[in-house]
Amino acid sequence: MSFLTPLYLIGALGLAIPVILHLLHDRPKNKQAFGSLMFLDKTKPPVDRKRRPTHLLLLLLRCLALLLLAFVFARPFVTVDDPTATGKRDRQWLTVLLDRSASMQRGELWQQAKAKVETALGQLGPGDHFTLYAFDDASERLADIDSWQDSASEAEVNKQLERLAKPGFGGSNLGQALVLAGEAIQEHQNGSDEKPLAKREILVISDLQKGAQLGDVQGYEWPTGIKVSLEQIGEDDQGNCGMEQVAARTLWAATEAVPSFRISNSPNASTDEFEFIGQTAAGDPLSQKVHVPPGRSRVIEMPAEWLEQTIQQLSIRGDAAEFDNAYHFAQDRQQTVHIVFIGEDKPNDAEGTLFYLQSAFQKTSALDFDVQAISGQSTDPLPEADLFVVGDEVSDDLAGQLDKAVRTGVMALAIVHSNKQAANLKLWLNAPDLLIDNVTSKDYGLLQELKLDHPVLSVFRDSRYSDFTNLHFWNYRELQSLPSEGVEVLARFDTGPPAWLLVPRDKGRLMVMTAGWKPADSQLALSTKFIPLLYSILQPVLEAKTQSRQFFVGNRLDVTRFNNGAVSGSVAITPPGEGATTVETADVFLPTEPGLYTAKGTDWSETFAVNLLPAESRTEPIPMDQFQKLGLPMDEAVASPGQLAADTATMEKTEANRLEYWQWALAAVLLFVTLEPALAAKGSRSAEPVMTS
Fold it and tell me: 160 vs 118, 142, 254, CA distance in Å?
């Protein structure tokens, strides 16, 4: 038996009222003064055997009437099974998203998460739909049971949970997992002719750490009738300290920068003193103290004495969580950039082009610039180079060799100093009618119409660097009869002629400057634009040479990036502590754990490092209001029309199969109220006189 309004049962406490009244009724109502009793015989008081049962029955009827009245208001009922609906039940769909990202390695979080999954299984009944996903930077569907079959289905789910012995090392892409679950429900809803499920819930079991990615749910339109529940574990987080390498802000700075690392301490951290440790290949530890207040970060450079040794691993010691304390480090090898100047300049001539070209490219820890000069009339074969800079007229043979080199992928920069170079430019620009005219400005020329959105000039896009009004040109050349196609003008002089041109040549490209950086021609070599411009021209080469060998778990690695892009056939990649995996150049490699990896080809070998995503170190919880701002349906789901119809039918069926007894209780109360006066009158009749002897 159940009650629709059980709180009214408190009224049963009124049973004390008739009991109290009954006791008061049996007390003598009046006291009569009487004389001495010394002349009267002692006798026992007479017992009225007929009166006691009459009063007891009256008491019971009064109590029962009050009890039944409380039952009337509480509305007792008994649900009777519908024999026509035996085995039928409104189906539900429970989707569980289990977080297996790297941050779940902390403490007992993983065991707690799996226990939460098992608890969620207790909500399921026969016929329910259950789906289980495990997610990190990608989502994997572990189980999809269309019709729950109690122990058999639970055994299948437990088997999948046992397979997940521990969480992985990937990042937490919670947004992607939520959208995937929502789309699965939407697809089932649109493609099924079955009766709508009574309840559809997505249960997230996660530490909900702040580094989780949620971008995918921004603006996502959730299907109707879905509720998202968040089961957060690890509320007692004691803070964490994370480390990541800091990338250089500019390309030319990257060639000179000492490796720097940002150490971040969480706001809820209990300590601010840490130890920064470097592990050498020989196994010798190097360390220094680091102070980082809670909620702050600090950038530190690798000590100079450490750079003299081969550092393979950096770590942080002193925080509560250890899953992200190790940072694997693959030191970059110094690469050589070969630059060949073709002209008649002397290396020490401060008035020439070669002098400033050599000064612009200085040797660094990452790059060694080899600037070689040859005559334009040389009969020797053209040497190999990453960049050719042409400052004078060259022979036809050398011009042909240079054109062939550019077409195969080499970058060339041609500086026009005189009309003697017309024959060369006709070949390189495919412009048979090209003419060169010298222009001498009465005052000076300025650059205008710069294409700052082009990769070569994008370094100047920032408003702080886009001002070229202080760059003056005394002498420049005008190129006439240029081809109408295949020539891109990057900048013009204020008088109209093109200043900088870019011409694609098959796999390579040729840049033409109609005014050089000789002091007699312009202020370019002495301006702040000179070095960034040269590095931008060399950008594809520098990116290949200084390509970082630091990656993250989950990165899709194109194996052609190794060996400076000179990779053919297959590459053998050896993860830490495992055997080699063969990867074809057309495929990608997906690292699944941190550590030092080895990529090996036929005649080359490289070591690269894989680390956890820095975001995983942000273990403090996400504020719940952030989920609400993202539009997650965390309140009771708004039912669809089909869902409302199903709920209405269920309610009607429940009402039909419910037997209520309040009407009978009310009838009994009315009967007892009718009998009570008669019984009370009978019980209060006058007592018969009793004679004493």
Answer: 12, 6, 46
Measured distance CA(248)–CA(149) in Å, rounded? 57
d(CA 532, CA 299): 25
Sign of CA dihedral 574, 575, 579, 580: negative
User: What is the per-residue burial (b if ≥16 Cβ within 10 Å, else e) of 65-97?
Assistant: bbbbbbbbbbbbbeeeeeeeeeeeebbbbbbbb
Tokens representing 557 are: 């690695």
Cβ atoms of 503 and 429 within 8 Å: the answer is: yes
**10-residue mean pLDDT series, the chain (693 residues):** 68 67 58 66 59 61 74 68 52 93 93 93 90 94 91 90 91 95 87 70 94 92 90 82 77 61 90 91 85 93 81 89 90 82 93 94 81 94 94 95 94 94 94 90 88 92 90 93 91 94 93 94 94 91 76 90 81 89 90 93 90 93 91 68 49 54 70 71 52 44
Contact 312, 279 (CB under 8 A): yes
Question: Could you write out the DSSP letters of every residue in 155-208?
Answer: HHHHHHHHH--S--S----HHHHHHHHHHHHHHHHHH--SPPPSEEEEEEEE--
* The residue to which tokens 């080469």 are assigned: 541
Confirm if 202 and 227 have CB atoms less than 8 A apart. yes
Give the contacts of 181 (CB within 8 A, at least 6 positions apart): 95, 97, 131, 133, 202
Backbone angles phi, psi at 683, to 5 degrees: -75, -20
290 Cβ contact partners less than 8 Å away, ≥ 6 residues apart:
263, 273, 274, 275, 276, 298, 300, 316
Per DSSP, the three-state class of 154 is helix
Question: What are the backbone angles phi and psi of residue 399, rounded to the nearest 5°?
Answer: -65, -40
Q: Is 309 exposed, middle or buried (0-12, 13-18, 19+ CB in 10 A)?
A: middle
Token pair, residue 29, equals 């109502």
Q: Residues with Cβ < 8 Å from 342, sequence gap 6 or more?
A: 373, 374, 375, 376, 388, 389, 390, 391, 392, 394, 398, 402
Judge contact between 176 and 135, C-beta under 8 A: yes
Q: What is the pTM assigned to this prediction?
A: 0.63
Task: List the structure tokens of 256.
Answer: 């000179």
DSSP-assigned letters across all residues of 72-141:
HHH-EEEE---GGGTT----EEEEEEEE-SGGGGSTTHHHHHHHHHHHHHTT--TT-EEEEEEESSSEEE
The span from the CA of 185 to the CA of 201, in Å, is 10
- Spatial distance between the Cα atoms of 99 and 618, rounded to a whole number of angstroms: 15
DSSP 321: -
The CB-side HSE value for 323 (13 A sphere, CA atoms) comes to 28
User: What stretches of 209-260 show up as alpha helix (H) in DSSP?
Assistant: 251-254
DSSP assignment of 433-455, as one string? T-EEEEEEEEEEE-EES--TTST
Neighbour tally for 650: CB within 10 Å: 13
Region of residue 629 (phi > 0: left; psi between -120 and 50: alpha; otherwise: beta): alpha
Contacts of 267 (CB under 8 A, 6+ apart): 239, 294, 295, 620
Cα(476)–Cα(518) distance, integer angstroms: 11
Half-sphere exposure of 183 (CA within 13 A, CB side): 9
Residues in Cβ contact with 86 at an 8 Å cutoff, skipping those fewer than 6 apart? none
Contact 207, 619 (CB under 8 A): yes
CA distances from 177 to 133, 197, 217, 336, 593 (A): 8, 21, 9, 45, 21
SS3 at position 316: strand
Cα(333)–Cα(353) distance, rounded to whole angstroms? 30
Per DSSP, the chain holds a count of helices (H) and strands (E) of 15, 32
